[in-house]
Design goal:
Blueprint lengths: L2 E6 L6 H12 L3 E3 L6 H8 L6 H17 L4 E5 L5 H10 L3 E8 L2 H10 L10 H7 L7 E4 L4 H15 L1
Parallel strand pairs: 1-3, 1-4, 2-3, 4-5
Protein name: Gluconokinase
GO molecular function, one term: gluconokinase activity
Keywords: ATP-binding, Kinase, Nucleotide-binding, Transferase
């Protein structure tokens, strides 16, 4: 069965860096969920307005269509996947077994990371709404992501192998 490894968490958790590093070490293709957001969604978030599931529908559909069309057995996706709506959409529409990896980072560190970004559409003001919206799937792997990148990636690989 084809798999979609979803590196998930709120803004500032390190999804892109960690998913990209995992993909690079495993030679699995990498997908960035932010590339699938509409301009309207990015504008809405940049203005400090949280997205609704209605806003997220086309985003989820776009990610699913791309991943379903890819021939590779495994894909790594950097995606917030905060809500059951998104998680179910990925599970049902991607044509793949979804394996969620939740990146755990203390709130103060998340805020520091977001504030340090110069060119990202997600403001610190949305952190609380993201944490409130976050529903971690029961079957998600939970990984402490406030450590060295290499250690985080190694732990993810070991956990995925143990669950295979």
């Amino acid at each position: 069965m084809k798999e979609l490894i979803v590196i998930m968490g709120v803004a500032g958790s390190g999804k892109t860096s960690i998913a990209s590093a995992l993909a690079g070490q495993t030679w699995w293709p990498f997908m960035e969920a932010d590339e699938h957001h509409s301009a309207a969604n990015k504008t809405k978030m940049a203005a400090g307005t949280p997205l609704t599931d209605e806003d997220r529908a086309s985003w989820v559909d776009s990610m699913c269509k791309v991943s379903a069309a890819m021939p590779e057995p495994r894909i790594v996706l950097a995606c917030s996947a905060l809500t059951p709506f998104v998680q179910a959409g990925l599970r049902e529409g991607s044509g793949r077994r979804c394996r969620f990896v939740m990146l755990d980072v203390p709130k103060a560190e998340l805020a520091r990371r977001i504030a340090a970004r110069a060119d990202h559409f997600m403001p610190v003001s949305l952190l609380d709404s993201q944490l409130e919206a976050l529903t971690v799937p029961e079957d998600a792997l939970r990984i402490a992501a406030d450590r060295e990148l290499e250690d985080i990636v190694a732990d993810i690989q070991a956990a995925l192998d143990a669950q295979a």
